[in-house]
Every structure is written in C-alpha cells, then in structure tokens.
C-alpha cells in the first residue's frame, strides 16, 4: 500500500466514523487540537484502523499517535511485510 | 400525553404506560447485562423477566452458572450468552471496554452490533457502557457525541434532560446536536407532541452564558427543525418551562444530582415534620393517600434509566442501584426506543448535515 492510499483510508475513517470535516484532515492535523477528537474517539480510531489494516496497536503505541501523519507512518511500518 | 401548550397534569405512569402497551407486532430482543449494578444478578434477572414476553425477548449476558438458577421452570422468551468477565466500577472505562472482550457489557454490545439483538440495557459501569457503545455499536453517522438523556418527573409533566454525563466538555455544535436528539427522544420515547427545547444557561437573554453557550444558542436558534424556546435557568427545569433541557454533561450531571439531593432533603424534612407531634401526625394521615401518589410519581424506578442517544441501537443505562421494577422499566424503554421512529429521525436529521452547520 502506498502512503497516499493509507492516508485516504485513514481520512475515510475519520470522516465516516468520527464525523470529522473532510477538509480539516491533513497529514499535519493534530487529533486533539485540530480535529477536535476526544480520548474515546482516538480509541475508536485505533480499533477501526486495526480492523481495516489487519494490524494490532497496543495502548502504548496508540498514545504516541498525535497527528494524522503519525497514524499513516504507523500503518506503513506495520503493513509493509 | 400533554402537548407543549397544555399545562394539564401528566403523570410519569402515563408516559411509561405507552412503553408497555404494545401497539406494534414486532419481536424485539433486548440484551440485559446480568452482572451490572449493585443488585446483580438477582434483581436484574427478576426485573428483566417481568418485562419479558412474546414481543420482548431477553438475552442475558453474564455468568451462566449464576443466571440459570434464577430462571423459573418453563421460562420463555429468554436466553443466556455466557460472559464470565465483569467490568467493575473501578475499571477505566475506555481501556476496559477495549480490553475486556469477555465481559458481560462487551459481549452484550457485540450481540447488538452483530444483529443478534436490537437493544442493550445495563446497570453497570456507566462510563464503560458509553465507551463500549461508541466502540462496538457505533454512533449514527453524523452524530459527533452521544448524550445520556434522562427523564425527570417535573411538574406538571415529565421532561427530557440531556446530556447528564456522557461528555464532560462539549462544543456548541454538540449542543445543537443534543437539541435535535433530545427533541426526537421527547417525541418518540415520551410521546410529547411538538416538544419545546430549552438551552440551560445563567440568564434568559441569548447573550447570557459562556461563549460556547452563547454560540450554541445562535446555532440552535438558526436550526429551523428545532422548536427552540430559548434559554432557561436552573430553577425552570422542574417546573416544566420546556419539554427538553439541553446542556453539557458536566452541568447536566451536577444539576441532576442537585435535583435528586434536594428532593430527598425536602421529603425527609416533610417526614420529620409529620412525625413532630400528634397534631402533625393526624395531618399526615389526612394527606397520606395523596402523598403516596406524589411519592409514586417521583420514584426514580418509574423511568428505569436513561437512554444514550446517538447510537445505532438503543442503549439504556439503568441506575446502579436499580431493583427489579427499575430494570423492567429500563427494558421497556429500550424496546420503545427500538420500535419507535427515534433512530430513523436522528439518522435523517443529523446524517444529512454531516459535520457542522
């Protein structure tokens, strides 16, 4: 999967599942400050990412994901066989 | 059922009677968390059995070995799904909801998500039920935050009050969404025709309140689908100035507990006054019947619990100390949520808007 594809998937999750504004989702966007997500939203995002990409994310790893870019990077390191 | 313009007395019974009077022919399956609450599993099972019937099937989640002995011989319309784990009151809600997949709450929510059941009721850890609902049942697309919507026995008619604790902090748009969902709840679950919506603030003028409340007022007033009365103050809640009161979860929780505490204090003082001397006791005897009617109307078990609005299926959070009656009512409220137009209405009114106004 390319970085762009992963980004589009993550963006899709944010827009459909968390009802985030489409145009706010950029690689630099910070979940808490820019996308106005709360801690429960982030847990939901992590769980949806796990399902969608077939990966596992621990609570510690999830705590490090602060921006959309972080989420994309994380998936890239896991999905690359 | 009284409309918003009528000031006729509407007892809580007449609101809840509609939940038991089955006017449809659907068979609804309600999952009941048999392990949640102070009086689990005994009172939970008893209450659920009271509500069970050909059109209301109960699916208990919890320790099967503890539940089965409580079911009388030949019990129908009931099944059990074994879930040995429990999410306690001390557990951190979101972590527990994610990790304890064998708990009665998570197993139950997953049954609803998978289409094996239509609604979920629990008297257990509220935070975990909210987190679990968001993670497993999911929000109706377009709903940004769910809200815990409770029914308060205001005078002369019961009203809806949300959010009483799902979110500590909210943004103005969330309050607008709560207004839409509260309105749908009042119509569909409480049977109030044309409910009036009020925004809780510290003054009547639109300029009163925190910047967020002022902005919320503007958003709600600008939404034509909301029958907006305007701002109301704390003291207006119990006298039914409006049918639906909207506020953030922190304020709502504080207000609700203040109302409960005041009612308890006043009733206690009333009892003490009646017991003062022979004259007051005689007076008490004369009032006895009508006081019992009043006590009945204020009984928190009458409404059973609160509904977490915004989820794809009805989730009813019963009071932690619920006994059988409260659980039975909570289960009936869940069924009402499932067969009414509550979910389609919220889906239609918030789905088209997507994110923000």
Overview of the structural elements:
The complex is a heterodimer of chains A (81) and B (357). Chain A is mainly α and 81 residues long. Chain A has a single domain (3-79), classed as Orthogonal Bundle (Non-ribosomal Peptide Synthetase Peptidyl Carrier Protein, Chain A). Chain A is 59% helix and 0% strand. Chain A is built from 4 helices and no strands. Chain A has helices at residues 3-17, 39-53, 59-64, 68-79. In chain A, helix 1 (3-17) packs across helix 2 (39-53) and helix 1 crosses helix 4. Chain A is globular. Chain B has 357 residues and is α/β, with parallel strands linked by helices. Chain B has one domain (12-260, 293-351): 3-Layer(aba) Sandwich (Isopropylmalate Dehydrogenase), CATH 3.40.718. Chain B has an 11-stranded mixed sheet, with helices on both faces. Chain B is globular and about 55 Å long. Chain B starts with 11 loop residues before the first helix and ends in a 6-residue tail after the last helix. The interface between A and B is medium-sized, with 15 and 20 residues.
What is the N-to-C succession of helices and strands of chain A?
HHHH
Pattern of helices and strands of chain B: HEHEHEHHEHEEHEHEEHHEEHH
Characterize the largest beta sheet of chain A: strand count, sense, and whether it forms a barrel.
none
Count of discrete structural domains of chain B: 1
Largest sheet of chain B: 11 strands, mixed
Radius of gyration of chain B, taken over Cα atoms and rounded to an integer in Å: 20 Å
Give the second-level CATH assignment, the architecture of chain A. Answer: Orthogonal Bundle
The chain-level structural class of chain B is alpha/beta
Which strands sit side by side, in order, in the main sheet of chain B? 3-2-1-4-11-10-5-6-9-7-8
CATH architecture of chain B: 3-Layer(aba) Sandwich
User: What is the typical, i.e. mean, pLDDT of chain A?
Assistant: 89
